[in-house]
Specification:
single chain; about 220 residues; alpha/beta; three-stranded antiparallel sheet; 8 strands; globular
Length: about 220
């Protein structure tokens, strides 16, 4: 049986970075749900399909191939054979992914992909509903949180590293809307699983958070 770690939390809580660190240190396969949804949003943009065209996006699902690959110890995501790891973080994708990911058919399609990958290998996955909806029977569930101010600061730093220009006000506005959207979704809403361990990372360094989670995983696997 495979071992599954689920990390949930709001946008900018650091779950993506933490998941990457933990996956490398423990040899777990990192399945990036956020990157997968952003890839669908990017595919819609590339095919000139408006986010309001639900039917068009659903039809698009059978025409795209999403793959997770580890290259030179880096987790990359490919859309139809093209490395889009950086592209899916850009502004046009960031402002449309929330709408795209709310389409239930998109979630069902991607969840099937995620679950299939977890059948034969030990995995770690982050998102907003991994421990409640995608993998409700995960061996370890973490709910990673942080204050809005800290999450905006982290996103600004992340964007700077990727060469993406967005103002503090713009990021804060997008994040507030994203929080509202995520918490009020009909399917896969952001919420803490009853058996998840809550970690507030507002005043913790990346390595501190990673070490906490690694310790939790090691104790569970022992």
């Amino acid at each position: 049986m495979s071992f599954i770690v689920a990390i949930d939390g709001p946008a900018g809580s650091g779950k993506g970075t933490i998941t990457e660190i933990v996956s490398k240190k423990l040899g777990l396969t990192n399945i990036g749900s956020g990157a997968a949804y952003r890839s669908v949003a990017l595919a819609a943009i590339q095919n000139n399909i408006p986010v309001t065209d639900t039917k068009g996006i659903i039809e698009l699902l059978d025409k795209i191939k999403i793959e997770f690959r580890k290259v030179n110890d880096k987790d990359l995501i490919y859309l139809n054979g093209e490395d889009v790891t950086t592209r899916v973080r850009e502004k046009d994708v960031a402002t449309t992914v929330s709408t795209v990911s709310s389409i239930k058919e998109v979630r069902f399609k991607l969840n099937d992909i995620f679950r299939a990958q977890a059948k034969s290998q030990d995995v770690i996955m982050e998102g907003r509903d991994i421990g409640t909806y995608v993998f409700p029977h995960a061996d370890v569930k973490i709910f990673l949180d942080a204050s809005l101010e800290e999450r905006v600061r982290r996103r600004i730093k992340q964007n700077e590293e990727l060469g993406i220009e967005m103002s503090y006000e713009e990021i804060e506005k997008n994040m507030k809307q994203r929080d509202l959207d995520d918490k009020t979704r009909e399917i896969g809403a952001l919420k803490k699983a009853e058996d998840a361990i809550y970690i507030d990372s507002s005043n913790l360094g990346i390595e501190e958070v990673a070490d906490k989670i690694i310790d939790i995983i090691k104790k569970k696997r022992a």
